[in-house]
Amino acid sequence: MSTTKSFQCLVCRLRHAAQHPPIRRQFHASSSSQARKRFPSVKASELSEAGYSEYTPREKKLLSLKYTSEQMKIIEAGEKAVSAVDMAQQGRMRTDPMRIKYLDDFATMRPILDRPLTAEDIEQAQRGLQEGRNPGSKKRGLEATPVEEEKEEVDLPMLRLSQQTGLSLDEIKRIRVKNLVSHRVVNQTRMGKIQSIYFLTIAGNEDGMVGIGEGKAAETEDGRRQAMMNAIRNMKPVARYEERTIYGEVEGKVGATIVQLSSRPPGFGNRCQSLIFELARAAGISDLAARTPRSRNKMNVVKAAFQALTKQRIPEDVARGRGRKMVDVRNVYYGGQVL
User: Is the predicted pLDDT of residue 254 greater than 90, yes or no?
Assistant: First the structure.
């Protein structure tokens, strides 16, 4: 018996290959794309309006038993206003947090999820409201408890700070607060060494007001809170040219530290060390250059920069001191207003 393969023409080979495609090797557990079920794609315009049919006379009669005539007119007007085609084409599933946890068109009453209210339930709720009790407590199988008024806890130190500064609590919360310096200090007494933690904090509304505050306490949180309140209490206005930089060049000196601040053109940015950068950002300054040619003690740098920002001389003060009148040539200083 011959084991050689019989000769096939090219047409037969192509026909056989078309009828028996090669089996591809699967590298994952899921089935191949050919073996998956195919569902016909349906366009929104092809959806039938059967799911959005109008109310039948029987349904309207049942609704009239539950709703008044005015409410029925509103329901009919709403049904006419909303097109079934628009519902089919533009309908979307809700993704907001207030959505219900199950799909329902609210057309049928469910005995567990939707418990209908009876006249007895309404009387009980009204009686509970008159007596000052929670009307929904008995429905859940709980004993009725008096309704307690929710009172927000008032922070007395923050309330006192609001009264001292004239700022509301919301404005105080929006103030930018940054702790710049913190280290441990020791006070030698006859009873021994008493350790405390020192904090230097800045506060600003990023709109021309900035302040610095110091705090010291045995506990970290107490010292930080004390420094924050002192910074907010010590906030002072800072003169800003075009609400982005300072007027000319100013200098501040505290101890052996000297800080030199210079104005810069728009887009220059705050090119200075981190301590002065945070102070300028809290004050709402975006274009500034600074130099510290001498000592760079952190506490003195912050204090000298704050001193330099608050002692600026604006052109109006210079003109008044010289007995002259300032003319706003660029319409920038007075914002285009003629005085």
Answer: yes
